[in-house]
Amino acid sequence: MNDYLLILGRDPDLSLLELVSYFSARNISFKIKDKSQAAVLIALPELDFQKTITDLGGIVKIARVIQDLDNEVLYAGKSNKIKYAVSVYSDTDTSDLKEYLKGRLREEKLKITYKRSSRTEQFLMPNDVVRHRLLDEGFELVVYGGIIARTIAVFNPYEYEKRDKERPLQRTLHMISIRLAKILINMVGAKEGDTILDPFSGYGVLLQEAMLMGINVIGVDNSRECADATKKNLEWTAKQFGTRVSFKAIHADSKQVSRFVRQADFAVTEPYMGPLLPKIPMKDEALKIVAQLNPLYRGVLRELSRVVKGNIAFIVPRFRLYSGERVKIPFERMLQEAGFRVVSIMPEIKMPLIYSATDSKIEREIWVFRKA
Ligand SMILES: C[S@@+](CC[C@H](N)C(=O)[O-])C[C@H]1O[C@@H](n2cnc3c(N)ncnc32)[C@H](O)[C@@H]1O
Questions:
Q1: 314 DSSP 8-state letter
Q2: CA–CA separation, 352 vs 367, rounded Å?
Q3: Whether ipTM exceeds 0.90
Q4: Cβ(175) to ligand 1 under 6 A?
Q5: Is 322 helix (H, G, I), strand (E, B) or coil?
Q6: Measuring CA to CA, how many Å separate 93 from each of 87, 89, 116, 206?
Q7: What is the pLDDT of residue 218?
Q8: What is the pLDDT of residue 116?
Q9: Which domains does the chain have, with CATH numbers?
Q10: What gap in Å lies between CA 118 and CA 365, rounded to an integer?
Q11: What is the pLDDT of residue 329?
């Protein structure tokens, strides 16, 4: 086992639950030694870290902790020109380290270019690391408290962008982000060979991500247009990426899903969450939406309890009013009524987790649960 620093994305609690579920599902032993809102210090066995970072939605960098900087080979490439950077994720003065690096690299007769963040932060964003080709043509050191680590894998935002652009059927609204899709898939503990059901499959974005992780998928949507779009996007995914998983898109009402689907290992979904809100709703409007969603969610939960064996991740909207008050769906009660219990992935992080998309008027509660 070696120590690694995992740099967390925008929602640290979600990222933590994601990685704990991800390693547990694969029987990968790990030990969290320290954690903050920025990073996790974790002992892990040797892994394919490029695959790990591609699978995880909530981790932006993986860095291996350096035990002895003097004896660490900083650059082993052929060129004598290198680029490097120091990214700081804590309140640490790194001027000595930077001087040390400059001196040492010059001593090694390298022509060096130091890369700074393009923003005000003390650290490079993943796209900076990718754009500057730092992992191929130099290196990045990550500093966290007294720890110095070397970046070995970085999240590549350009791949997400490409996938979002190339998907044959597109819509701008109601599509889950790739990042959140991955986090949810990992939070239920799904892995290669398992089957995931999305009872509100929309354009199939979430299921596409599952397929890319080697997971079989079943999508259900009650709109003919969406069921067709799911089918086309999943066919394209299979062809484009050569995935060898099974995929199915069913046009049906999720309140009757057990008529069409016999069994799934897991379910992950961002359901229908009411009409699109151009602005923060008035209380009576929010109450009306909740009254409309209650029977839908109740019906779907009843059906999921018949079909799904393992964990379920379900997004539930809640409506913030101008006064700051929240209008909520009584989801915990619904879970009990349908015979589910909330899953505690880490006791110190309580469900539901709250996720606020930057461009959305609603807040999302994230629930993970399974049959009681
Ligand atoms: C927020 S979108 C899902 C986004 C999707 N997860 C994705 O990745 O693109 C919600 C979807 O639920 C579908 N829907 C609404 N009511 C439904 C029902 N009763 N049964 C099945 N699908 C339903 C809508 O047609 C819509 O496509």
A1: E
A2: 5
A3: yes
A4: yes
A5: coil
A6: 11, 11, 16, 42
A7: 98
A8: 87
A9: 2-155 (3.30.70.260), 159-371 (3.40.50.150)
A10: 33
A11: 98
